[in-house]
Amino acid sequence: MVIAKNQLLGFEAETEELNWMLADVTSEVCNKYIPKFSDILDKKQIHWDEIKYLFKKDFRKFDKLLFNLHFKRNKNFSELQRERILIFLSIGYLNSKDVRYFNEFLHFYKKTDNNKKYWLLMVKTFFDNLTESNHHPFPLCDNQEIESFMHKIKNNIELSRNKKVDTSLRVGLLGSPTFFKKIRDHLISNGFDVRCYFIPYHTNRKINFLLKNRFLFRLLCLSKRINFRFLQLDFSYKDPRIGEQLKKDKLDIGFHKLGFIIKKNIIEQFKIGIINDHWAILPYIRGRSTIEYSLLFGIPVVATAHIVEEGVDSGDIVSFYRYDNVKNKYSKISQIRNHIRREMEFRAIDAIEILSRNKGPIAQNRPEKGLMFYSMHPLLKKFIENNVLKKNCLIKYRLPTIGCKGRQTALRFFQASAPHEVWRFFQVGCFACLPPLSRVVSCLEHIGDVNE
Predict the structure, then answer these.
(1) 3 state SS of 170
(2) Is 32 helix (H, G, I), strand (E, B) or coil?
(3) Position 288 pLDDT exceeds 60
């Protein structure tokens, strides 16, 4: 199954009629209440005109329902219940132009004769909303407003760089020590007092098992040459004893790469605040699949450093980092993600130094300016790669990710050899550079990627 225009051929009249049924309010609206998810599933009679009216008036009133809905993607529903969900999501997308509803539609859609009409209408609506460059509009503002906001913040950041870095502050690095070797070394060389804390917990069960397996984690530390001391806190991530231990060290600034939402027991132990590395521009794009949605909207690909609060991506802004070149450089979303991941160490150091200068954030993160996004459906990701990235990307020879010595050898060989010899090198010799537990190591290296 793909998202393609040619699927619509021959169904124009049918989709137009359905569009009129789901978009137009055909009766007088009396009760203007927001339905619950249980109402969508089981209520005997649903007043769809009331839902259409509310979507037209303010589609954000349904944000809580959309949040609850995305947790039900893998549940089993009756045919009638699933059709009701698809109708609700179709009404939402038609009347708001909010692509989150199309994304959830893709997750809930099951190919049947009864539901095909909704699929065709949603595909048509999606293509109707696209610009000539295959970008989807962001439903709250145009891209010029976002650029103006970023320009203002950039000026504040540049002004703050004229101040002296306060190295008297104590920094706490939270997460796997494998993330922090270069960050720690750089901060210490600049005069900071740095402490590292490892909390072996992740919301993903498989990663959580690997973190708690002392043997595997020890192997990872050895492979990364981790030779500095760190404090392992073997408590539940909500346990107040974590906070008690952190409080003893009188920490000022934190930077984290944790695989869970941080709670008050950790947040309150940092005098100035903990920095989160969010892979999109705040306050506009919050939640998950943020790189994908930035590409779909034609918004600059950005990483935002912001203060951690209990709400998701809700803390005020410390700094941001643009990656304008990645859209033309790469043809895969995973390549862009890897590029941004490789820059994490620089961002962490820079954001900590900026926060030490200002003793606080430089811009507000106003929640009403943005939306919460949920993991993107593979069909939408494929559409972005085929119609947004590859359209502008020059395909080049790329070397697999290998060890440093292996990369240098491969580059020398590549420069001196014919293409078929290079391919043979990769088949036979290149993978000898990889460690035996490379797949485990690769998995553990990404434990802090909560934007996935």
Answers:
(1) strand
(2) coil
(3) yes
Cα–Cα distance list, 147 to 22, 142, 182, 195, 299 (Å)? 35, 9, 32, 37, 9
- The pTM (predicted TM-score) of the whole model is 0.85
Sequence-distant (≥ 6) Cβ neighbours of residue 204 within 8 angstroms: 259
Side-chain-facing half-sphere of 446: CA atoms under 13 Å: 14
Name the nearest CA neighbour of 337 among 438, 260, 414, 442. 442
Q: What's the CA gap between 18 and 90, in Å, rounded?
A: 10
Residue 416 has pLDDT above 50, yes or no: no
Tell me the average pLDDT across 32-46. 84
- Provide the 10 A C-beta neighbour count for residue 165: 16
Q: Could you tell me which of 270, 349, 371 has the C-alpha nearest to residue 305?
A: 349
Considering only CA atoms, give the Rg of the chain. 25
Q: Structure tokens of 237?
A: 């991530």
Beta bridge partners of 371: 285
Whether the per-residue pLDDT at 44 is higher than 60: the answer is: yes
Cα separation of 60 and 40, whole Å?
A: 17
pLDDT in tens, 153-186: 999 999 988 899 999 999 999 999 989 999 999 9
